[in-house]
Amino acid sequence: MKWISDSEILIVGLGLMGGSYARALKRLGYRVSAVSRSRSTIDYALAEGLIDAGATEPDAALIGGADAVIFALYPGVLLDWLRDNQQLLKPGALLTDVTGVKGSIVYDIQAMLRPDLEFIASHPMAGREVYGVRNSDERIFHGANFLITPTPRNSPEAVAWCAGLGRLLGCRKVSVLSPEEHDEMIGFVSQLTHCIAVALMTCNDNPELVNYTGDSFRDLTRIARINDEMWSELFLRNKDALLREMDAFADQFRALRAMIAADDREGLREKMRLSTSRRALFDRNKKGT
Amino acid sequence: MKWISDSEILIVGLGLMGGSYARALKRLGYRVSAVSRSRSTIDYALAEGLIDAGATEPDAALIGGADAVIFALYPGVLLDWLRDNQQLLKPGALLTDVTGVKGSIVYDIQAMLRPDLEFIASHPMAGREVYGVRNSDERIFHGANFLITPTPRNSPEAVAWCAGLGRLLGCRKVSVLSPEEHDEMIGFVSQLTHCIAVALMTCNDNPELVNYTGDSFRDLTRIARINDEMWSELFLRNKDALLREMDAFADQFRALRAMIAADDREGLREKMRLSTSRRALFDRNKKGT
Fold first, then answer.
1. Please, which pLDDT band fits residue A289 given cuts at 50, 70 and 90?
2. Which of B253, B263, B271, B273 to mutate to test the interface with A (most CBs of A within 10 A)?
3. Fewer CB atoms near the end CB (10 Å): N or C, chain B?
4. How confident is the model at residue B118 (pLDDT cuts 50, 70, 90)?
5. What is the model's pTM?
6. ipTM of model
7. Which pLDDT does position A212 carry in this prediction?
């Protein structure tokens, strides 16, 4: 399918991410339907005009009518849903997801999928520290990076379709990389950063801190408000890559500690200059970091 | 002195912080003068109306006319300046600073200071990752925490005067704590966070990262653009406290790593829940973190 205006898009899982997809696609004129286990979520989304139709159970007509499906579920739930319900999907439908890990799900999904369906994995690098459809906001995609992780089973058409989705959402940059490259990179930029925030937030229990802090502590711990169900699953599904990235970070941290202990001011300044020059690349590429 | 409108305030060091003090105090109607080694800084500040008078050398008339002095210098430079120029200060003048470490300077300053002068140390928890008077902005104080660190040599009147300064700047909360408490706390909320940002920014040299990152990596590395001259001095002047805080963080980080390696999902979730509840305190106390 192309991104033509009479496409019907189904969103499975209508939380913060699913809801944000619904808002963006609905505003662009697509017909959007959704499946969510929560009645109040579906009612809210219908009342607010985020979706045209919704169901709390896998509804054969709703699911069978969709030309494209976006899965916004936790990884394990996504695997279960497809195993149980793929027989309801329209022949030729294109499927994608939003999942933060790839290697541990994409091959399993493609291996079990009906041959007349295609699953092309993607991951919008966007989110918020709040949950649920009521907090969904299509602006989370604006300026975000959008990653597509095809395997040898994917067609160029599906990759192109998925890239179109990223651009429709308003992402600044669409990149294509392998599931393995994705997981290594995500272990660094996303999972390691969440580990650091959690460790930082739990290593000091001074209740007065809130009256003493500046912006740097707030920035580093914003993501310490963390969905424990989702992130524990993401961490463990990407364990090997995450442990490698944690060790690389711990090495650098230890090196800094040794310089401070040894009063090595020149060594510290050199590290800080390297850090400054690397960080500057990010400012040039993104407005208002 | 009280914060009465005919007070004359001298700012020594007219960078980002000194310039921001000048803007705030000038707008409030005080007469503000400044000493900076840079001619272009003084010219800019005069042209923009940030100050009423300025000098690039310690000018006896300018310095002797000030009822209050705010030192916005690096710690070592501050100690040198006072040693060389305190004879020029007006008898009874109140002195304060903006320095990010306290124990390693405040006792030395008070020990060498003329008995008719009083130095009351303070630290506004505000800043930006840019430098110089041209980037100064009085809004950095709005909503910030303001810390005062008296010693037994300080008078209650000087503490009250300094608290008035914090409130005039628009800080949300003025706290009084000992230099030692300050340094321990700053080792955690400020210096440790900068160490983490530098280690994170230097532990991976993938040039493609900028196309893959989300907001969490950007947030954690914003402060990885770091003034190496200033921060290396701050780290080494607070070495013992900083090393303790680094070790406490490294312990938590190692504990998380062990849980991930052992597939201890329940342990991870418990840590994440603790982290979430602690971070929530910060959101309740500050608008728009």
1. very low
2. B253
3. N
4. very high
5. 0.86
6. 0.88
7. 84
What are the tens digits of pLDDT across the range B169-207? 999 999 999 999 999 999 999 999 999 999 999 998 888
Alpha carbon distance A180, A193 (integer Å): 19
Residue of chain B whose alpha carbon sits nearest to that of A196:
B253
Sign of CA dihedral B195, B196, B199, B205: negative
Q: Does the distance separating the beta carbons of B251 and A243 come in below 8 Å?
A: no
User: In chain B, which among 35-54 make CB contacts under 8 A with chain A?
Assistant: none
Task: Choose the mutation target among A264, A274, A275 for the interface with B, i.e. most B CBs under 10 Å.
Answer: A275
DSSP lists the bridge partners of residue B12 as B35, B71
**Which member of B144, B173, B220 has the closest CB to residue A219?**
B220
| End-to-end CA gap in chain B | 36
pLDDT over threshold 80, residue A257:
yes
- Residue spans of the domains in chain A: they are 8-177, 182-285
pLDDT number for residue B6: 73
Q: Tell me which of 3.40.50.300, 3.20.20.140, 3.40.50.720, 3.90.1150.10 is the CATH number of domain A8-177.
A: 3.40.50.720
Question: What number of H helices and E strands is found in chain A?
Answer: 12, 9
The whole-number pLDDT of residue A287 equals: 42
Domain B182-285 coded CATH 1.10.3660.10: yes
Among all residues of chain A, which has the CA nearest to that of B205? A278
Q: What are phi and psi of B32, to 5 degrees?
A: -120, 130
Q: Which two tokens stand for residue A46?
A: 């219908």
Q: Which residue has the tokens 């499927």?
A: A95
Closest chain B CA to residue A252? B199
